[in-house]
Amino acid sequence: MPRHISSVLNIQKGAEKWTVLAQVVHRGHSQLTREVPPRRIMRFLLTDTEGTKVSVVTYEQHIKTFSKFLQPYQRYYVSNAIVVPADPTYRVGTYECSWILNYKTLIENYAEPVPPMLPCIFELTNFSDLHKYADSDNLCNIRGFVIHAFPIKQLDPDSISRDIIIVNEEKKLMLMTLWNEFEHDEGSKIADMISTAPLIIALRVKVTTFNTLSFTTRYSSGILISPPLPDELSLRQWFSLNKEEIRNLLDAKTYNDASYLLPPPNEEDIKAISNFQASFPVQKAAWVQGTVKLAYGFSKYWTTACANCHKIVNADIDWIIHCPSCKQQTEVELRARIPIIITDASSSIHCIISGEDAEKLIEFTPLQLKQAQEDGFQIDTELNDALKKYTVVCFLKSYETPFQGQLQRKNTVIKAYTAAELSDRPLPLELPENTQVFSELRSSSARHAETSSKDQLFTPSTKLVLEEIAGASSYKDSQTSATSGAKRSLEFPEDLPADTDPKQPTKAAEEFAKEPAKSYGPLANIKDSPAKKPKAKED
Question: Polar residues compositional bias: what residue ranges (predicted)?
Fold first, then answer.
């Protein structure tokens, strides 16, 4: 009498003497559980012919037995596994159970020349929605073509990683970091196949704010390489038609461009500041909007940072360093680092804004900020006068750091847009009463008036100071050029806080103004080969 072949949905807790024709969607790594004491575990994802997915595990001595079977995308008869309620972390779709393979479980090959396309559907996240997942515990599934693989990074004797760049149908390039076993297994295979731009599906990966936005593998993640999909041919045709444009995006390093990774948000994506503050730690990053002013109490408004990943390093700007964050040999750059307060109708929030986003608000260069501090020139009033003109829409990251034995919450601006830059979008949230929004939603005559008003931003003495600082900057640049052979290659601590020394002497602007200033990859065959990418990241 022939066996009855059941569907996954018919196999419920306590079922016995059943058989399912199952196709392997994903074969995981042999890992240790996080319980005490830990156990060796291996996970699989299977689907039946109806497309119902089921999470499957096996433990300890059974791993060796079942790892000989259950190869990716092949089909097998699976009989008499133990059926238990699914772990929410690994539950897939509507099926509420998972299977445990043990010595009673029977696995049989299903003979066929070529396995069929995967019948199951994957719930994929659009890259344009990744900001909703940033730095949260909500993992996502994504699909894309791998167009570049960076070299392996040995972080310490027990930790390695590899960064890859993937692109999806939205033509968005994203960095993904494969850690340890993911690099050893999937990363090495992807690197070997990089000339073919392999299509991958990444399951349960985390979105981080490192490198503005990027992916990183977690303990529970899974990587499917070149899965047999019903729409694989159409995806390949799309990639072929857009190959040159994708190559240009790769050359432009858009995977490292904050404006590209975090374009202006939709109105419904902007949260009230009070709601963002209340949602921590469930949501640690979000778009907010408000007016800006300086947060007083700081004496230093600049920092030195890695020119590659922008992490703070304690180094001179003429040094060449091995960055402890991105693990790349790179130059050191000056960056503006300004403490600000953003206010909307619901609340206010203190945060740090850095780099180009800070410079477009304050109209000082980092070198001018450094020179002013070194010469004792107090510019708090000028900074605040510049900042308070603006209403901004910012993508904020909130995090906690230890301070005097307690956790202290801090906030950083990842990307900021001014009202002028969003002139084609209405500002959605109510602002504080009596707030004048500085916007460029005006006629050409108003724009001319604005240009004139900028000339009045600084007092005559302050403008003289800036002219002298600029002159000093030109002199310093010439001196640096003359001594550029004296470079250093050192390693430094990952992060240093901004100095706030209240004892540092300062001078009024008028007094100070009187003093003299002091791939390789699949796109390589299009035109020229892409430049080497120094970008890297950590989880």
Answer: 475-486
Of 356, 352, 330, 332, the C-alpha closest to 341 is: 352
Peptide bond into 37 cis (omega under 30): yes
CA–CA separation, 432 and 160 (whole Å) = 49
pLDDT single digits (tens) 200-243? 999 999 999 988 999 999 999 999 999 999 999 999 999 999 99
Cis amide leading into 281 (omega within 30): yes
The alpha carbon of residue 371 and the mean position of all alpha carbons in its chain are separated, in whole angstroms, by: 33
| Separation of alpha carbons 82 and 155, rounded Å | 40
Using CB atoms within 10 A of its CB, is residue 376 exposed (0-12), middle (13-18) or buried (19+)? Answer: middle
pLDDT in tens, 23-54: 999 999 999 988 888 999 999 999 999 999 99
Tell me the CA distances in angstroms from 368 to 210, 362, 402, 451, 469, one per residue in order. Answer: 28, 11, 32, 22, 6
Spatial separation of the C-alpha atoms in residues 239 and 143, rounded to whole Å: 13
Q: How far is CA 323 from CA 161, 233, 310, 316, 494, in A?
A: 16, 42, 10, 13, 8
Three-state DSSP at 102 gives coil
Q: Residue 521, exposed/middle/buried by CB under 10 A (0-12, 13-18, 19+)?
A: buried
CA–CA dist 149, 532 (Å, integer): 11
d(CA 501, CA 506) in angstroms, rounded, equals: 11
Average pLDDT (123-139) is 95
Tell me how far apart the alpha carbons of residues 227 and 47 are, in angstroms, rounded to a whole number.
13
As a whole number of angstroms, the distance between CA 511 and CA 106 comes to 87
